[in-house]
Amino acid sequence: MISFGCTEAPSGVTVPGVREVSEAVSLPPTSPDGPRDEGEPLRFDAAEGHGLDVLARLLGASDVGMALQGVTLADPHPALLEAGAQRIARACVAWLTVDDGWRERAVLRDGTRARGRLWDAHLTGDFSLRFTAAPRDFWLRAARVLPELSSLDSAAAKPARRLSRLLSTLDGADRRAAGDVVFFAIVCDALRSFRLTAVDEGALVRGLCAASPLASLQRPDATVSRDELRARFAALLDPACVRAVECVGGRLVARWNRAFEDTLRTTAPAPEQTARWRALADTLHAWLDTLDGALRMDLSDALARHAAWVFNGPFNGGVEAARAAVAASVRLRDLTERDALLAAVSDVCGLYARLLKRRDALALERYGDDRYDEAQAFVREADRWLTPLRARVDGVARAFAPVIA
Questions:
Q1: pTM for this structure?
Q2: Per-domain residue ranges for the chain?
Q3: Are 372 and 365 in contact (CB under 8 A)?
């Protein structure tokens, strides 16, 4: 099911290639003309066309080099809102499907293992790709604000005020509405194409991550505490949202790998590097805490895949390779900076060792125990990705001494 939680004026939506969806996509009747007749072609004026260009860019489907024109869509026609709703819904379903959604995988349903793909009814159940009005409001406001803030049109008037108005549209987002969560994660990835200043882009990313726990899970942020991350991530395991999480393991692995590699290779000053390592550690530990507490360790396979990448790649040589890799990327001014940096790196590596400890503990679950099916799913993935690397993982976790030769 795909639905927009606005008001009245229903019109049907079909997402080809996934499954037919006939439930209502509700759009507010902003014009006395009402909804268009079925089969009537959609027609847009120039301003509406520019608004759809901005939406295409927000969904990552537009030419990066194309200049955008800011437009005010204060009283959008229902046909424009319907077209926008269709594009948002299709983009969100495609985003879930092209990653792990099309793959058959084992997940838990009522504590029991089941296998299937994104569209299989026995896994989908009552899952709804539900949207509040926040994605629509964000798009309509962004159609005016983002082109003016873009470096392609630097003559923006009162940019700080305009940015705050755009951020205010995120207040209505629902962290447990799968549509909102996925849409804002997509937008977060697409922001770079607008060529905003670092300050503006950073403010928008933080706002989007606060609105979408999925975006937050993909983007370690040193300004967000581990407790706040746990609170955000808990919403992802809500029954209304968890199906989306089950479909994006590959995206999570790719983003964590990139965060690890970027941090390792950056030439930023030691305090900034330390903050990046700490942010990655907080994100990974908070996600593992959330999964373990919710009895969903079957979803920790992405963590195991990321760990395997680390110890088959940057830390392939064990302790000495890890020390050398960190030492090559930073210049330390004193022992305080050194100890802080190595403590942060050690915290990241401790997550990988922690995965193995949880594997060993859950392997003791017996048939008939409450966590048996969950444990079997987790142990199988851990043994596939991480157990063969146990010596490297444990060695780095134990011996990552606070010394850079």
A1: 0.86
A2: 1-247, 249-405
A3: yes
